[in-house]
TrEMBL record:
Keywords, ordered alphabetically: Chaperone
Coiled coil: none
PROSITE patterns noted in UniProt: DNAJ_2 (PS50076)
SUPFAM superfamilies: Chaperone J-domain (SSF46565)
GO CC annotations on file: cytoplasm
InterPro entries, alphabetized: DnaJ_domain (IPR001623), J_dom_sf (IPR036869)
Keyword Membrane: no
Name under which the protein is recorded: DnaJ homolog subfamily A member 5
């Protein structure tokens, strides 16, 4: 699942928006407040998503790995040949 969808925010959200969404969901699914097994699993997923998209460096890497928009076909060819010979 997409980390942004996990927290219910858009890819263009600010760190403040991400933090607000995380706190709201963390309060709802925290194991101390919610005893269900699903809540514990959901809380772990929320925590993982927040760890990645709240840090600007990790967020940029995540976006680059998962949502790359190809603008130059030479980039595809270069990455293909690079991976083919390594």
């Amino acid at each position: 699942m997409d980390y942004f969808e996990q927290l219910g925010v858009s890819r263009s959200s600010t760190t403040i928006d991400i933090k607000k969404a995380y706190r709201k969901l963390a309060n709802k699914y925290h194991p101390d407040r919610n005893d269900s097994v699903e809540a514990k699993e959901k809380f772990q997923l929320i925590q993982q998503a927040y760890d990645v998209i709240s840090d600007p460096k990790k967020r940029a890497l995540y976006l680059k790995q998962n949502y790359t928009v190809i603008t130059d076909p030479r980039e595809v060819a270069d990455s293909f040949w690079h991976s083919a010979f390594n």
